Amino acid sequence: MAKVEDLNGKVVWITGASSGIGKAIAQQCAELGAQVVLTARRHAELENVRQSLTNPDQHISVIADITDESQVRHAYEQVLQQKGRIDWLINNAGLSQRALIQDTTMQTERTIMEVDYFSQVFLTKMVLPTFLAQKSGRIVFISSVAGLLGTQYRASYSAAKAAIHMWANSLRAEVADQGVQVSVIFPGFVQTNVSFNALNGEGKPQAKQDEAIENGLSAEDFARQTVQALQCGEEYIVIGGKKEKLGVLVSRISPKVLYKMIRKTKVK
């Protein structure tokens, strides 16, 4: 049995923490005694989340747009100033997509890559010296089952989520003997606002819910499974329904069968 990491008193920094998966993970970590650092763009929403956590006074809200490097640098300085260390960094902020490749502008392609890949790379590189100096800590990336499969209407999103997965694999290999752990989580369908905020081809939010997401795991259930897996030190974590798990399994055994399955699936 793997030793379960005790989160009591640990500092857990979560991006995209104002709603959905980020908020649910924050609540789960706070229940287990962690000191949670919440980051997103809107202060009022972060404060609402902070007040909803167990022991709100031991948590802090740090505003930053993760695509703005100077804001991220400032946020990092604030976290170290107020908490002195970081035990878990959870790169959760992200942006999805619902558009055919032929309808997606290059600007939209770049926007999705900026949020889902480059900004996470920048924040991680910013925080890495702290982890290396501590000789401990866990860096977590929220990728997606889409990043393992690649489906219609999510080309740029799938590509960005696959890119962060591969970058994380390289990071894991580089820091493994320095006490730093790297985990990647691949969510299937989870009930959040992700599809409301997903970009259409012109880069505007589609503003409607997907049926698959409506029928997905609750954010709370997802967060519980995620934190548990991280506490056990797991590095490759797929969390979703039977269909998504089957897709991931098939992708590893027979890509050809997977491609056929995806072509027949109604995924919009």
Automatic annotation (TrEMBL):
Domain Ketoreductase: 10-193
GO molecular function term, any single one: oxidoreductase activity
Annotated GO biological process: lipid metabolic process
Record keywords: Oxidoreductase
Residue ranges of the TM segments: none
The family this protein is said to belong to: Belongs to the short-chain dehydrogenases/reductases (SDR) family.
Function, in words: Putative oxidoreductase.
Protein name: Ketoreductase domain-containing protein
Organism: Dendroctonus ponderosae
